[in-house]
Design goal:
The chain is of the alpha/beta class and 676 residues long. The chain is built from 19 helices and 29 strands.
C-alpha cells in the first residue's frame, strides 16, 4: 500500500520506514500507511517563516480573501473524489458532505467576509483613535499585524477535511502560514486534500505544509511568533499546553477538547407539539451523523421528568429505523466508527456510563450490519441510555460514538445545575416554544458553553442544527472543552494577529494606518476631490466649502415637506421649554441635506454613487440664523480588485459660525478607478 507523503520545505517527502497501516473503517482493508520519519520539523517551520510568511504579508487582506475563494471553488470541482475516499473512513455520503462541503464552505465564507469586513490593506486598524492630550497632537491607535511565525494545526480524526480547513482559512486570511498535522486514522483523506491544494498552484509557496504521521520533535522548535491549535482529547491537550517550548515562549495555544454537550427539552414541549418532535429528531440525528463522532454531538439529553418515558419511546422508535453498515451500501444511514480501536474505546466508556444507568436502546456488543462484516468493520449500534443525573459518570465520561444519555429534571434551576456539571462544553441547545424559559436557560448555560442553539417551530426549517459549527460563529468552549475559540468570523483572524498600541502625532498614525484621522494633514487644492478618480485621489485630500445660513423659512418648509412636525421644530413655546434646545431648532436631516448641497460637485465625474452614511452624531443644535460650513476629507481608500471602481470613506465635519461641530459622520462613495 502507498505510504502517505508529507509536504514540507517546498517539496514532497516520503519516509523510508514501512509506516503504520491505516484501515478502511467498514471493510478492514488496508488503505495506506503513514510515517513522518525523516521530516526535518525545524526546517519545515523555518521554511514557513522565511518563505510562506513574507509571501502572505505582501498580499492585502482582500487579495488573501480572493485566493481563499478561488481555492474553495477549485475544491468544489473535486468533491466526488473526496466523497469516495471519505467513505473509507466509515462516513456515509451525508457524513462526507457534512465534512467536505462544510470545509469548503469555511473557505468561501472567509473569502467573502475578508473582502466585506477587512481593509484592502496589510494593516488592520482596531477601534477608534484615542485622544491622549488636550491639544490633539498626541493620540493613540491600536493596530493588528500578522505574527511572524507558523500556525501549527493538529487535527482530530473525525473531520479530516473540515478540521484542517476551518483552522487554515482564518490563519491564511490573517497572513500566517500553516503546518497541518492530521490524526493518523483518517490522514489519507487529508493527504489527498492537501495534494489537490498544492497541485492547484493557487496558494503562494510555503503557506501550507503537511505532516503525515507523528509530530516528532515539532513542538520543540516553536518560537514566540508561532501558534498551536489542537483538536482532540482533553488529556492530550493538557500535555501539549504544558510542553516546555510552548510554556517558555508563551506560544498562543488554542485547544478544542472533550465536550459533554447537552440538549434540554422545555416543559412546554409535550408529546404532539412540534418542539417535542424536533427534540427527538435532533437527538437521534446527532447520535447517528458521523456515527456520533462529532465534538458537538449531544451526549446528555435533559428532559422534564414526566416526559422521560415518552422521549425514550419516541427516540427508540426512530433509532430502530437506522440502518447500520458499509457507507457505500444502499439504504445505510449510519456507517462505521473510524477504527476498531475507536470502537473499543467507546465500549470502555460505555461500561463506565452503565455504572450510573441502563440501556434504553441498542446493544454495544451486537449490531446488524448491511454490506460488511460486523466485526471486521468498526460498527456499533446506536446506544441510548437512561441515567441518574445526580451521579458523576454522565457528566464526566464521554463515549465518542453513537451514544447519548437521557436524564430527568424537575426545575429550571436544577437543569442549569446539571448542565454545568459538564464543566464546559462546545455546544448546547434548548428546544422550547417558551421564550422566557429559553432566556433563563441561555443565561444560565452561557458561562459554560461556546455556542447555544434555541430551537423551535419558527426556526426549525432554516436551523443548521445543534451539531453544526458555523464559520461566522465561534467554535470552542470553556473548561473541559479546551478553553479556546476558533472561527467566529473575523475573531478567528484576530487570533493570528498581534494587537499593538501605537502612540504619536495624528500625521504619524495616519501614515502608519493609511487612514486619515482628525489632526492629520489635509491637502486642499483647486481640484475638488470629487473630480479625482481613485488612482488620483489621496488620503487627506479635502475640500472646505462655502457657507449657508439656516433660516426659519427653511425649517418651516422642511417640516411641511417631510411631515416631520416634531415640536422642537414647529412649536416655539414647547421648544423653548426643552432644556436641551431652548427654542426652535433645525431638523438634523435638514442639516445633512444642506451639508450635501455644500460639498457636492454636481457635474458627472468619477464619483459614481453615495451608498451610505456611518457614525452619524448630531453634536450641537442648529438654530435659525446659524451659518453652516463643511470640511470633507478623504479618510480611507479601498480599491476593489475585481471591479472598475473602489470605495472611498470621507470624513464630514459640519461646523457653525462659532467653529463648533454640529454634525460629524462618514460618507461612503463608490469612485471609478480611472477618469472617463
Amino acid at each position: 500500500m502507498a505510504l502517505l507523503r508529507s509536504y514540507v520545505s517546498g517539496g514532497w517527502h516520503t519516509a523510508e520506514a514501512d509506516g503504520v497501516p491505516l484501515h478502511d473503517a467498514a471493510t478492514g482493508e488496508e488503505v495506506a500507511r503513514v510515517s513522518s520519519e525523516g521530516v526535518d520539523m525545524a526546517a519545515a517551520l523555518d521554511y514557513g517563516r522565511r518563505t510562506g510568511g513574507p509571501a502572505l504579508r505582501e498580499l492585502t487582506f482582500h487579495q488573501r480573501a480572493a485566493l481563499l475563494k478561488a481555492l474553495g471553488s477549485h475544491l468544489r470541482e473535486h468533491r466526488d473524489e473526496l466523497y469516495a475516499l471519505s467513505a473509507r473512513t466509515g462516513a456515509t455520503l451525508g457524513d462526507s458532505k457534512f465534512d467536505i462541503d462544510g470545509g469548503i464552505g469555511v473557505l468561501l465564507t472567509y473569502g467573502s467576509k475578508g473582502k466585506r469586513e477587512l481593509p484592502n490593506s496589510t494593516v488592520y486598524v482596531d477601534g477608534a483613535v484615542e485622544p491622549l492630550s488636550k491639544g490633539g497632537t498626541f493620540v493613540g491607535q491600536h493596530i493588528a499585524t500578522p505574527l511572524r511565525g507558523v500556525a501549527i494545526q493538529i487535527n482530530a480524526f473525525n473531520f479530516p477535511v473540515w478540521g484542517p480547513l476551518e483552522k487554515f482559512a482564518p490563519a491564511f486570511l490573517a497572513g500566517v502560514p500553516s503546518l497541518v498535522k492530521p490524526a493518523s486514522q483518517t490522514a489519507y483523506l487529508t493527504a489527498r486534500l492537501v495534494e489537490l491544494i498544492i497541485e492547484s498552484g493557487i496558494l503562494p509557496e510555503g503557506t501550507l505544509q503537511f505532516v503525515a504521521g507523528s509530530v516528532g520533535d515539532l513542538l520543540d522548535h516553536v518560537t514566540p511568533q508561532d501558534l498551536v491549535s489542537f483538536t482532540g482529547s482533553a488529556s492530550t491537550a493538557q500535555k501539549l499546553r504544558a510542553h516546555p517550548a510552548i510554556v517558555r515562549n508563551s506560544v498562543r495555544f488554542n485547544g478544542e477538547a472533550d465536550s459533554l454537550n447537552c440538549s434540554i427539552l422545555g416543559p412546554d414541549a409535550k408529546p404532539g407539539t412540534t418542539e417535542f418532535d424536533l427534540f427527538v429528531k435532533q437527538l437521534t440525528t446527532e447520535m447517528t451523523v458521523k456515527a456520533g463522532q462529532k465534538c458537538t454531538a449531544i451526549r446528555r439529553a435533559f428532559v422534564p421528568a414526566e416526559l422521560l418515558d415518552a422521549v425514550a419511546e419516541a427516540a427508540s422508535a426512530r433509532l430502530a429505523k437506522v440502518t447500520v453498515g458499509n457507507p457505500t451500501a444502499e439504504g445505510v444511514r449510519m456507517g462505521a466508527l473510524a477504527s476498531l480501536e475507536q470502537r473499543e474505546e467507546v465500549r470502555r466508556s460505555l461500561k463506565s456510563l452503565l455504572d450510573a444507568g441502563s440501556i434504553l436502546f441498542g446493544d454495544p456488543d451486537k449490531v446488524d450490519v448491511v454490506g460488511a462484516d460486523a466485526e471486521t468493520g468498526a460498527f456499533l449500534s446506536p446506544i441510548l441510555l437512561k441515567a441518574d443525573p445526580e451521579r458523576a459518570e454522565p457528566h464526566e465520561v464521554e463515549a465518542f460514538g453513537p451514544v447519548s444519555t437521557l436524564m430527568p429534571y424537575t426545575s429550571t434551576e436544577q437543569v442549569i445545575d446539571y448542565a454545568a456539571r459538564g464543566l464546559g462544553s462546545l455546544a448546547g441547545s434548548v428546544v422550547t416554544a417558551d421564550a422566557e424559559f429559553a432566556r433563563e436557560i441561555v443565561l444560565g448555560l452561557a458561562p459554560w458553553h461556546g455556542r447555544l442553539l434555541v430551537l423551535d417551530a419558527n426556526d426549525a426549517k432554516e436551523s443548521t442544527g445543534h451539531g453544526s459549527p458555523m464559520p461566522q460563529l465561534v467554535h470552542g468552549g470553556p473548561g473541559r472543552a479546551g478553553g479556546g475559540e476558533e472561527m467566529g468570523g473575523i475573531r478567528g483572524v484576530m487570533h493570528h494577529l498581534q494587537r499593538t498600541a501605537v502612540q504619536g502625532t495624528p500625521q504619524v498614525i495616519s501614515t502608519i494606518t493609511g487612514q486619515w484621522i482628525p489632526g492629520a494633514e489635509r491637502t486642499i487644492s483647486d481640484v475638488h476631490p470629487f473630480r479625482k478618480s481613485l488612482s488620483e485621489l489621496k488620503v487627506g485630500d479635502a475640500v472646505v466649502t462655502g457657507s449657508r445660513t439656516v433660516t426659519q423659512a427653511d425649517v418651516d418648509h422642511f417640516a411641511e415637506f417631510t411631515g416631520d412636525t416634531f415640536y422642537a421644530h414647529t412649536d416655539p413655546e414647547a421648544a423653548a421649554a426643552n432644556p436641551l434646545f431652548g427654542g426652535i431648532v433645525a431638523h438634523g436631516y435638514l442639516v445633512l441635506s444642506f451639508a450635501a448641497g455644500l460639498f457636492v460637485s454636481p457635474e458627472p465625474g468619477p464619483v459614481l454613487a453615495n451608498y451610505g452614511l456611518e457614525n452619524l452624531r448630531f453634536l450641537t443644535p442648529v438654530k435659525p440664523g446659524d451659518e453652516l460650513t463643511v470640511t470633507l476629507t478623504a479618510k480611507q481608500i479601498t480599491p476593489r480588485d475585481s471591479a472598475e471602481y473602489g470605495e472611498v470613506r470621507w470624513d464630514a465635519d459640519v461646523v457653525n459660525q462659532n467653529d463648533e461641530s454640529v454634525a460629524k459622520y462618514d460618507v461612503l462613495t463608490l469612485v471609478a478607478k480611472e477618469s472617463a
